[in-house]
Specification:
The protein has a six-stranded mixed β-sheet. Strands 7-15-14-12-13 form a five-stranded mixed β-sheet, sandwiched between helices. It has a four-stranded antiparallel β-sheet with strand order 8-11-9-10. It is built from 15 helices and 15 strands. It is an alpha/beta fold. The longest helix is centred in the last third of the chain and has 28 residues.
């Protein structure tokens, strides 16, 4: 039996808390703004009991942006204990589409940063946190389409499992089915994409700390615990993102030093692939796939293998930016054509309406996949003076994302009318 949904005339709409939201707060921080006065103001409101749930969630984001992740998460947990439905800013009081995002109780990087994709649009965004063991609001808030924004990570797997349970009864179409999202964690993705011609995706293995300590002390060969790869390897704590804890290790001694610096219990290990081009530089691409079509998000170029956009020095190099601009301009006739088969087969297997891929090209010209997920950020915060080519590309992505949501809602209306 479908879950009940509130109608526009229904006076029993669930209470929703308004918030500034991640997109606006991140933009303020990105531009060098001082978040501390706002943090202090919101903290005082929380202390004296005048803060509503929206202020509490904004305080959590601000605190995380200031590098105090554990405190920010503690604030979020307090808020979500009594309120779980929030509304992000919308440019119009009469939105053309109403979207309900289904989120997990996780840090600010663990859910799809959907606000960036909808900011400034006439699409209303409400976010409902799904917490295992807690009932969802009945009736649900009025919406035309839902989207799952939780990730396939150890911290949100229980929430994702709850969404899988609820999905068959959901009264509106769901973008990004939760069952498909659960294939994306690093140790599962290589199995999902294995055997696709034109794709190189090193196997990733989850290894316990105790096993790695045995390797570091030369009591066990690495090949035994990592199911194949020997040194050099890539290692990172399981559940980490944005390069946190990522390292290349060449022998057992380096592994021992790494473990001393990282107290986590589980780690991802994969073989190292040297993907440097002939000029000695590494090039890493972020691609977003929306409704089956790939779009370029960025291209990072650096002298080191462990690239993410913020450490590539793109803002300091006119030649790098020129190459990125050409990558975006010619994407549909060059990169997308060159890897047409690989991108198409990968899209079929991932089977999500919206996902992102971080990748490179190996020395054989294959698509080297680092990760695929639904939570990597796509934003329009970069300087238009330094990156004049970016805003048009980001707006094209945002338009495609909005159209995809409208299409899902329209198909559902047509089916209900029939």
């Amino acid at each position: 039996m479908p879950i009940e949904i509130a109608s526009h005339e229904n006076a029993d709409q669930p209470a929703v808390a308004d918030r500034i939201g991640l997109a606006k707060l991140a933009k303020l921080a990105f531009d060098g703004g001082d978040l501390k006065p706002l943090q202090q103001e919101f903290a005082e409101m929380l202390t004296n009991g005048t803060a509503d749930a929206g202020v509490g969630m904004d305080l959590s984001v601000i605190t995380q942006l200031l590098g105090q992740k554990n405190i920010g998460l503690a604030i979020q947990n307090q808020v979500l204990a009594f309120h779980r439905l929030f509304r992000s800013p919308c440019k119009t009081a009469r939105p053309r589409l109403r979207v309900l995002a289904l989120a997990a109780e996780i840090d600010m990087g663990g859910n799809t940063p959907i606000e960036f994709l909808l900011e400034g649009s006439d699409i209303e965004l409400k976010t409902l946190y799904i917490i295992p063991g807690r009932d969802i609001p009945v009736p649900l808030p009025e919406h035309d389409v839902a989207i799952v924004i939780a990730s396939d990570s150890p911290h949100s797997c229980m929430a994702l499992a709850e969404m899988v349970r609820l999905a068959p009864r959901w009264p509106r179409p769901i973008v990004n089915q939760p069952l498909m999202i659960s294939n994306l964690d690093r140790d599962k993705l290589h199995r999902l994409l294995s055997g696709i011609a034109g794709i190189d995706i090193p196997a990733t293995t989850t290894v316990r700390r105790e096993q790695l300590e045995e390797v570091a002390q030369s009591r066990l060969p690495l090949e035994t615990v990592a199911q194949g790869p020997g040194f050099p390897i890539i290692i990172r704590p399981r559940g980490s993102h944005a390069g946190r804890g990522l390292a290349r290790l060449t022998d057992a001694a380096e592994l021992g030093g790494y473990l001393k610096a990282h107290p986590e219990g589980d780690f991802f290990i994969s073989r190292f692939v040297d993907y440097a081009n002939a000029d000695g530089l590494f090039r890493k691409y972020r691609i977003v796939v929306i409704d089956g079509k790939p779009y370029p998000v960025h291209m990072a170029i650096a002298a080191q293998w462990d690239i993410w956009y913020l450490n590539a020095g793109m803002s300091f190099s006119e030649s790098k930016r020129a190459e990125e601009a050409e990558f975006m301009r010619s994407f549909d006739t060059s990169f997308a054509v060159r890897h047409r088969h690989a991108l198409s087969r990968m899209t079929e297997r991932v089977n999500l309406d919206y996902f992102l891929v971080d990748c490179a090209e190996n020395n054989n010209g294959e698509l080297l996949i680092f990760e695929a997920d639904n939570t990597a950020v796509v934003h329009n915060m970069d300087s238009p003076q330094l990156y004049p080519y970016k805003a048009p590309q980001m707006l094209a992505i945002f338009d495609a994302f909005g159209k995809m949501l409208f299409d899902h809602a329209a198909r559902s209306r047509a089916e209900r009318a029939a």
